[in-house]
Specification:
4-stranded antiparallel β-sheet, Type II/IV secretion system protein, 117 residues
Length: 117
């Protein structure tokens, strides 16, 4: 595991972030969209989507919450990077809310686990 990097971009979901990044990379004309997706698959580990809820119009608050985390598996499924839904805030018809990491990610996170206090 390397030193790591963090970056931000605006997108509607963790999955749509891959499309946004790939289109920006391919826009330069140096690499194809397929190569951009391949680079994303091999060089990004996690996509974290932060959702903004703005209820100020009715006297409420602007709040940001993590709504979804997707792990990129390193593979490509079709033309897009393969992902695993690791965490989501709300249940959907496709998956329940909660933390469901794959075995690889659990192994990588194990060294950060706190013991009994």
């Amino acid at each position: 595991m390397g030193a790591g990097t963090m970056s931000t971009t605006h997108s509607h979901s963790a999955s749509s972030t891959m499309d946004r990044l790939a289109s920006r990379v391919a826009q330069g004309g140096v690499v194809t969209i397929e190569e951009a997706y391949r680079q994303i698959a091999h060089n990004i580990s996690l996509l974290v989507h932060v959702e903004l809820t703005d209820d100020t119009w009715r006297g409420g608050l602007r709040q940001r919450r993590i709504s979804e985390i997707r792990q990129l598996t390193g593979g490509v499924d079709g033309d897009r990077p393969s992902t695993h839904l690791t965490w989501q805030a709300r249940s959907t018809s496709a998956a329940p809310a909660g933390f469901t990491p794959d075995v690889t990610l659990l192994g990588e996170l194990a060294r950060f686990r706190r013991g009994p206090t």
